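Your task:
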Amino acid sequence: MDYTKVCFVIMPFGRKQVGDREIDFDDIYNRIFVPSVAVVGLPEGGTLEPRRTDKDFFTGDIGQEMFQYIEYSRFALADISGLNANVFYELGARHRAREAGTAIFRQTDAPIPFDINRIKAFPYEYQPEQKAEESRKLITQVLTESLRHNRLDSPVQLALRVQRREHADIEEVLEEAENAVRNHDPATAIVKYREALKGDPGNPLLRLKVGLLLKDRGSWEEALEHFTEAALRAPEYAEAHREIGIAQNKLWDRAGRRGGTPDGEAALRKAVELNPGDFDALASLGGVLKRREQWDESAAAYRQATEVSRGHPYPLLNEIILQARADRALTLDGRRRMQLARAERALGTQVTNQPPYNAPWSYFDLATVRLLLSDGDGFLSLLNQGLTYCDAAWQPGTYRDTLRLLADGSVELPRLLDGIEQLDEAVQSFF
């Protein structure tokens, strides 16, 4: 076996239940993954060869063959749709075995487990055929670019690389910090990460982790310090540049949007340059341009983020809102209604997860879907559920400012003004 040409596909076999649907993963392998992988060119010439252990009828032990694929394959593609235990086991083993050469995919409306929601998982669709073809192109592009750049993509190897710098003394503290995160105790996690940073102040991963926790609690200045340090220590750390841009824009907004204060655009464009597939950076760039009232440029950034993410609700909803503001009326054609239906399905999965994924934003985004579909009561109900997950004034404030774009554009929707009023009251309750 020439493993230098192999792409090992880690995915469920046969028919499996995903949410309320039964999915034929063998069909997805044959119709989506195989043709996508088989056209990926190798830098030295030739193409990748897709492999899956149940498709190779060897006489040996399938477990042994699986571990050989995990250890030696040039590339591994993992489909985490359905949260299959075997898939996660093999993905973890792969991340431990190889620093680079792994890409994760999931069906668009499939939830991401809390413990790995910071790891990039590219969305794909297998039906209708138009979406399937778009997905095949995306998979080929992701694998081709990954092989070309060969960047470290294993969170396990990144963490171990840090530990090899003779910081075994902080291992117990890091474990306590991670357990606090899992137990939804951010205050304890921040304390433990800070303690770990005393022993390893140059660790970019730790800097990003504590910065994200501080950001979620509204401590933007301190979060920015950690993001900036992470980028200084690891200049190609795209996520650090993205978070710098997000934090800078928040502080610029708080400072009255004055000139001379970085508004985050440069950092976000750097993040997109380092990782063109980071829809979050593109969407955040759309937010920067929106706050500067560069409406057309903002809509273009959100549109690109929607395309890159294959219809992620956040950029999609912002794109629709900006278009409605420009037209001074909301017009939803069949394509838009289909996009909103897919967004509603994905967001519904997020809010029914235990605990809810990405609250309060999943609730606010789902509320916006109901608003755009003229369901005023559903909009207010979801808005109020989202407010129960807010722990800082900037969260309801950000959502209020988005809805005000519709009101400022004289777009009339049921209960829109009531929602803005409730968000105003929520912002004031934090002061």
Observations:
- The longest strand covers residues 102-107.
